[in-house]
Every structure is written in structure tokens, then in C-alpha cells.
Please model this.
Amino acid sequence: MSEKNAAEKKRRKVLNASNGFIFMLVMIVFFALHSLVIDIMTDSSKYEVRFEDDETFETQGKMYRLYVDGDYYSDIDYNRYSLTDDNGNTDYKYCTIIEDASRLTYTVILSAMLLIVVIIAKESSESTPFTQENINRVKRIALLQLLLAFAPGMVRMVMSFIRFNYYHSTFDITSWYLFAISAVIAMIAFIFQKGLALQEDVDSIA
Model:
């Protein structure tokens, strides 16, 4: 096999893998959006929270679980479903929509980050990855990572204030981890920027 044919085969393999990955990202976003739409269209009377035995563990502790129309939906954090309005009424459907919207926000941002990574991989299969455009893309990944740390929580907070006029929050160490990762990615972009500048200086001298 000639070197040209081998390069073309490698390029096609990267392209096919990238397209498959992009399709997977689209489907993940679609299913997250589908869950939100379904919950919006479902009657609020069909949502029920039960406190029942969890047979998964030997201790058989109790878990709060959400049921929709009598069917198990998911295990839940009851603190997020115990919100009440000014009249003391709960709204399990709206609480579920809040979780759906927060999850969709997280999914969209994460998918956008992964899409940028796929674009970098596709273009780097044919040329050097150390370009100004790729550095700018890494910076965008850092920004999206920062949004990933705070945007889902902001969506949850705003929607809670709209319906219940208050927001229940607990310390979430995961957000700080995501923020730290954002800072690391930004630092990597800075290092690549300096490296590219040095390489351009060397090339100009040579």
C-alpha cells in the first residue's frame, strides 16, 4: 500500500469516527430535550413521590423515588422536590421540569465541548494540531467548561424563583471541580499560545 493510500485510509477512518461521534452527541441532546418535552406535556396529577425501601443494598434503607402515572421514573434528592409555593403546595411536575432543564443545559454545553474536540481531531489528522485556530478552540472549551460549572445550577435557581419565589441550595463540590478543570484548560491554551509564538519566531529566523 502506498503512503498516499495509507494517509487517505487514515483520514477516512478519522472522518467516519468523527461523524459517528457527532451523531451520538446529537442523539444525546435529542433524548435530553425529549424528556423535557414529555414532562411538560404530562399532566401534573400523574407525578408522585414515594418514600420506600431500597432493596439494592443489604441494609435496605429507604429512598425517595419519583413515579409518573404509577411507573417508576427515578430516584430523587427530596430536597429538590420539597419546594412549596406561597400557599404551601408542592409541584412535583415543575420540580421534574427543573431537573430536565438543568440536565439539558449540562448536556448541550458538554456536547458543544466534545464537538470542538472532534473538530480539532478531524483537522489535526491532516496537519499539525498546533495552530492559532486550535488554540482559540481550546480557549472556547475552557469557557464552556466554566459554563458547565455554573449554568445548570443557574437554570435551576432561576426556575425555582419563578415558581416558588425561593431556591434551596446545598454546597456542591462538583461545581468547584469543574471550575478547576476550566482553569487547567485555560492554562493549557496559554502554554500552547506561548509555544506557537516561539515556534513562529524560530521559523522566521530560519
Q: What stands out?
A: The first strand starts at residue 47 and ends at 53. The mean pLDDT is 86. The chain has four helices and three strands. Helices lie at 3-41, 92-124, 132-164, 173-205.
